[in-house]
Structure formats: C-alpha cells, structure tokens
Amino acid sequence: MPGKRVRRHISQLSEFERGLIIGMKTAGWSTRRVAGQVYRSEYAVRNCWEQWTREGTHARKTRSGATRKITRREDRGIVRQVFVNPTVTR
C-alpha cells in the first residue's frame, strides 16, 4: 500500500539509521519528527541520541557472554555434513 508506514518493532537500528538520527537531531529536528522520518519509535530515537550525547559514539556495544569456540564457517560445515550423512554422530 502506498503511503503506509511500516514499523520495525524488533530489529535493531542499523548503522545508517543511527547516522541519520544523529544528523537530524544535530540539525535541530524534534525526536518525534526524526522518529517519523526513519520509521522508528521515539524511544529508539531518544536512546540513540542519549548514547551519542553521553558517550560520543553511536556504535553498538559488545555483548557479554561466552566466546564462540568454533567459527560460523565450521557451523555451516557441520550442517552440510548432516545432510550428506544423517546417521553420523556429532
């Protein structure tokens, strides 16, 4: 439908969107206007702007948790082997 706004509720802001938000807020746009322009919630825009003003960066923070023991390439190889021979154990 033309003109219908699509909201992305679950996905995170991309680096491009973060840059747009910072640029628009720096230019003096209101949070509501920026949120409408990038099709995100005012809450997401406000959080992005607060991080920029507090830390001076808009990059995502590193996540805590265990480090990966195998690479994503090795993961794909394991999945491929399952299709080749499904009776083999892990």
Keywords:
90 residues; mainly alpha; 0% strand; Transposase IS30-like HTH domain-containing protein; Homeodomain-like_sf
Account of the 3D structure:
It is found in: Nucleus. Its main location: nucleus. This is Transposase IS30-like HTH domain-containing protein. InterPro entries: Homeodomain-like_sf. With 90 residues, the protein is mostly helical. It is 52% helix and 0% strand. It has four helices and no strands. It has helices spanning 15-26, 31-38, 42-55, 72-84. The longest helix is centred in the middle third of the chain and has 14 residues, at 42-55. It is elongated. The N and C termini lie far apart (48 Å).
Question: How are the SSEs ordered, and which strands pair?
Answer:
Elements: H1 15-26, H2 31-38, H3 42-55, H4 72-84
Helix pairs in contact: 1-2, 1-3, 2-3
Subcellular location: Nucleus
Main location: nucleus
Protein name: Transposase IS30-like HTH domain-containing protein
With helices defined by DSSP (H or I, 4 residues minimum), what is the helix count? 4
Q: What order do the SSEs take from the amino end to the carboxyl end, as H and E? A: HHHH
How many angstroms does the end-to-end distance come to?
A: 48 Å
Overall pLDDT metric: 82
